[in-house]
Design goal:
The structure is a single chain. This protein is an alpha/beta fold and about 220 residues long. About 30% of the residues lie in helices and about 20% in strands. The chain has one domain: Metallo-dependent phosphatases (Purple Acid Phosphatase, chain A, domain 2). Strands 3-2-1-9-10 form a five-stranded mixed sheet, covered by helices on one side. The longest helix is centred in the middle third of the chain and has 14 residues.
Length: about 220
Amino acid sequence: MSESIVAIGDIHGCARTLETLWNKLKPYKNSTHVFVGDYIDRGPSSRQVVDFLLEVRHDRTCVFLRGNHEAMLLDALHNNRRENWMYNGGDTTLRSYNHAKSVKDIPESHLQFYEETKLYYETENYFFVHAGVPPDQTIEKSLNNERSQDFFLWGRDHLNAFDVPWEKTVVFGHTPRSFPIQKKRMIGIDTGCVYNELGFGKLTAVLLPENTFIQQASLD
């Protein structure tokens, strides 16, 4: 039986857009829903996004990956390194939590959600990750190399690679584009939901293995 997956791109605090896309995905409710991270920051409703995800995870099979923005929040929480997170939109996230002063003021259930996000998820034919996989080595080698796993959250070098030695198709977000990226063994689904300019402003899901894209224009 072929795997049936819906992968959903970077949300960035766009709760109304997410809810509307989620309703569009009802016909695929029996599929595994893989979120590629960046639920928070920049958009107006980070708290509402996580509230929604905590609720709907009981309705459909969901996998929540960690984005670099969740990684920055956790770095602020555990290592008191707050400046980088604030610079990248953490201030809007704290505002959504009733103008919280510190990451420690975020509700425990939400902090647990961020803590439990996964670095990657893989199936027989696909490897899901927030940013990408180093383009100069196999996925297996990257999984066995701790330094490579930083690339899972932040990397972009693969976007310019002519060919990659990956064993399966990598599905990722992180780098906003006006249209989904479709290259050999590569699907990018960050279409800049939080940016209403330059052809961005869409939240994208991809149905796999059909390679069908479903989008929702930003409502936030």
